[in-house]
Amino acid sequence: MDLDLRKLRYFVAVAEHRHFGRAAQRLFIAQPVLSRQIKAFERELACALLVRSTRSVELTAAGERLYEEARQILASVDAAVRRVHDVERGVARLVIAFAPGLPVSEAVRAFNARRPEVGTDLVPTRWWEQDRQLREGLAQVGYLRRQFDETGLRIVPIGHEPRVACMPAAHPLASRSELARADLDGELILDTPTRRTSTLEEKFELIASGHGIALVPRSVAHTYSRPDLVHLPVTDAPIVETCLATVDRPDDLVREFLDVATATLRRGGRDPQ
């Protein structure tokens, strides 16, 4: 089926407001029209997206997944349209993808200081498909963590960071100052084939609920810090390598950004916080 982007935007508005009336106001359409469009969208997809009540709207499991996917889809579409308009106006623009917890802002500021006429956009990557934006032409550069499929990509090593074990604050191991991998024997580790989460928010919510623990880069644990979780160093866990990635044979603008970003990020890339 062809995905109707207008209906997808309507659905996202309802998902964000959890209320048809407020979503309709934001979209500048009548509430009955919005309701009919969402029902038509559900029929087209052949699945229920919302659970409706007289006071609120909740997402079904399918709706939650579509909401996550839709935000990525609409962001990609908006970026593509913006790039088309930039070409028409003769405006140069660079899109940089970044993995969660990896701050690329310092490199962007340094590049913008050198090339203020170039527009820069930032797009987040999903942890299990970091190279997707590069391969689909949605970004020209990525600040990523290995491992991912590097086929056909140019990789510039930046630094490394340790992994930490993230677990509930009430976990028996939570009072320790550090761990070894042997201490985790018998624990349910997320991010294995047994349970792959679609977002980091979902992963940390599962951990806080007692559904397992996870080994994550330390910068990710710091970025998603919360009082009901602790993260402990794992002394013998493999380090995480960080890198800049771009398509092979980048153009002059991308090469210039790579030069600036490499120098900037390597100063702090040995162990990002």
Question: Main traits of this protein?
Answer:
273 residues, 3 domains, five-stranded mixed beta sheet, three-stranded antiparallel beta sheet, 9 helices, 41% helix, flat, transcription regulation, DNA binding
What's the gist of this structure?
The protein has nine helices and ten strands.
Give your account of this protein's structure:
The chain is of the alpha+beta class and 273 residues long. The chain has 9 helices and 10 strands. The chain has 3 domains: 65 residues, Winged helix-like DNA-binding domain superfamily/Winged helix DNA-binding domain (Arc Repressor Mutant, subunit A, Orthogonal Bundle), CATH 1.10.10.10; 96 residues, 3-Layer(aba) Sandwich (D-Maltodextrin-Binding Protein, domain 2); 71 residues, 3-Layer(aba) Sandwich (D-Maltodextrin-Binding Protein, domain 2), CATH 3.40.190. Helix 2 packs across helix 3 and helix 5 crosses helix 9. Keywords: Activator, DNA-binding, Transcription, Transcription regulation. This is LysR family transcriptional regulator. InterPro entries: LysR_HTH_N, LysR_subst-bd, WH-like_DNA-bd_sf, WH_DNA-bd_sf.
